[in-house]
Amino acid sequence: MRPLLKIGGLVLLVLLVVVAVAVPLTIGIRPIVGPKARQLTERHFDATPQRLERGRYLATAVNGCVACHAELDWQAAGFPVKPGTEGAGRSWADEGLPWLTAPNITPDRETGAGAWTDDMLARAIREGISHDGRALFPVMPYAQYRFMSDEDLASVVVYIRSLAPLSRALSPTNVPFPVNRFINAVPEPVTQPVPEPDRHDPVAYGDYLVRMGACRDCHTPANAQGAPIASMEFAGGFVLTGPYGQVASSNLTPDPSGIPYYDAGFFLEVMRTGQARARKIHDAMPWSVYGKQTDGDLRAMFAYLQTVKPVRHRVDNSLPPTICPLCGSSHGAGDQNQGAE
Question: How far apart are CA 310 and CA 254, in angstroms?
């Protein structure tokens, strides 16, 4: 019996060693040891009128911070923020993620971010690490926000600090296993200065604004593991869920299946009104937020979108959802993409 137990113990030891070696090689060590996170600093962002105004513009018209961290009126056109809930957070149960909460980021010290330091907010925004060291679920688009300039970051933090303190306790996010482990691999520290974008180059500045609006995240379909399909950037087909049901994002590339017929004026009209002439675009596209941008910024966004790679991918929400062989999602006109490159 003792030799058998000894053999069994050796076999178990070998298996544990194999697992200990194989798992990090397969998925890396981050799901096991936790996310990459830099040490917090004592940095503080001085509140100036310029930063307050720039932060207000970014948080309400470009980044959508206020819209994500507030209750929305699902019955009104454009799903606007319910007055009095700005920054107070919301549960994302209505959007198919019952375990996800966009926290209260108002300066309330008990239920909000009033006790968080400026660098806690900065690290969460650009690096995906919460004030308590957890990896944020990537519906918070910190992978895009890492390109946010240092000055714009300071402006956003200053504006968040200016919000009216709202007492609203919410259940914390509780990402289910094993997803809570896998997302540990996503955050990356920002350790170098991030300069201001070149506003004299419409394409470069448009790229910056598109990143700040996280347009890629919604308009690029994802694979079975939830990762964006790189070859289909901006090609649409990402399925959004809400009280409105399900709707797929549009193809924004210059391909004939996308928006090649748009010009800058038409783009501004759609973003301002939520209407593409007689056709209403779905309110899941937050035109009521992005339409608040200046004409110059919207034109820069359009200038950049004209430069992205054309991708043949038909998405039509007026048709019944069918499986798409290109992106793997079920969306309107999915079956019409058979044989497409």
Answer: 5
Residue 339 contacts residue 265 (beta carbons within 8 Å): no
Contact 329, 249 (CB under 8 A): no
Distance, in Å, from the CA atom of 187 to the CA atom of 279, rounded to the nearest integer, reads 39
Structure tokens that stand for 118 in this block: 């400026």
Q: Is 54 helix (H, G, I), strand (E, B) or coil?
A: helix
**Between helices 49-57 and 150-162, what is the axis angle to 10°?**
90
> Does residue 204 contact residue 297 with C-beta atoms inside 8 Å?
no
Position 339 scores a pLDDT of 56
- State pTM to two decimals: 0.89
Cα 123 to its chain centre, rounded Å, is 15
324 within 8 A of 330, measured Cβ to Cβ: yes
Choose among 64, 47, 183, 161: nearest CA to 113. Answer: 161
Where does residue 314 rank: exposed (0-12), middle (13-18), buried (19+ CB within 10 A)?
buried
Average pLDDT over residues 145-154: 98
Rounded to whole angstroms, the Cα distance separating 170 from 173 reads 9
Residue-wise over 264-283: b if at least 16 C-beta within 10 A, else e? Answer: beebbbbbbbbebeeeebbb
How far is residue 325 from each of residues 26, 157, 170, 322, 331, measured CA to CA in Å?
27, 43, 40, 10, 11
**CA 331 to CA 321: how far, in whole Å?**
4
229-278 tens-digit pLDDT: 999 999 999 999 999 999 999 999 999 999 999 999 999 999 999 999 99
Q: Which helix (H) or strand (E) holds 298?
A: helix 295-305
